[in-house]
Amino acid sequence: MHSWNDHAPIYQQLADQLAAQLLDGDPHEGDAMPSVRALASRYVINPLTVSRALQSLVDEGLLESRRGMGMYVRSGARHRLLQAEREHFLRDEWPRLREKLHRLGLGPEDLRWEDA
């Protein structure tokens, strides 16, 4: 079971988690997403919350709804998501991380990229 936090609505947290899975290639572009019912059962949340999360991903251009067939990953979704995530990291996360590294006196020689 997944634990949700109070920092964002549950539908947004689910959308973020599903987007991270898309970024990892699961499911692949062109493939169907799990059904609303399956996702609601997996995450133990209301199907309406799942629908809202999926609609958020449709609005972002990552998924498309095929009438009577469900939601499918759009072609180019992973690339669009990767670009957006990189931009967000460099704009919002990297400056804070760089500041913390500087404050702790850590430099490139202290970081091990290979162990990731």
What is the gist of this entry?
The chain is mainly α and 116 residues long. The chain has helices spanning 10-23, 36-43, 47-59, 77-104; strands at residues 63-66, 70-73.
What is the fourth-level CATH superfamily?
A: Winged helix-like DNA-binding domain superfamily/Winged helix DNA-binding domain
Q: Helicity level, as a percent range?
A: 40-55%
Number of domains: 1
CATH topology: Arc Repressor Mutant, subunit A
Number of strands: 2
The structure class reads mainly alpha
InterPro entries: Tscrpt_reg_HTH_GntR, WH-like_DNA-bd_sf, WH_DNA-bd_sf
GO molecular function: DNA binding; DNA-binding transcription factor activity
Organism: Roseateles depolymerans
Keywords: DNA-binding, Transcription, Transcription regulation
Characterization of this structure:
There is one protein chain. The chain is mainly α and 116 residues long. The protein has one domain (1-106): Winged helix-like DNA-binding domain superfamily/Winged helix DNA-binding domain (Arc Repressor Mutant, subunit A, Orthogonal Bundle), CATH 1.10.10. 54% of the residues lie in helices and 7% in strands. The chain is built from 4 helices and 2 strands. It has helices at residues 10-23, 36-43, 47-59, 77-104; strands at residues 63-66, 70-73. A two-stranded antiparallel ribbon has the order 1-2. A hairpin with a 3-residue loop joins strand 1 (63-66) and strand 2 (70-73). Helix 1 (10-23) packs across helix 3 and helix 2 (36-43) packs across helix 3 (47-59). It starts with 9 loop residues before the first helix and ends in a 12-residue tail after the last helix. The model has no long low-confidence stretch (mean pLDDT 94).
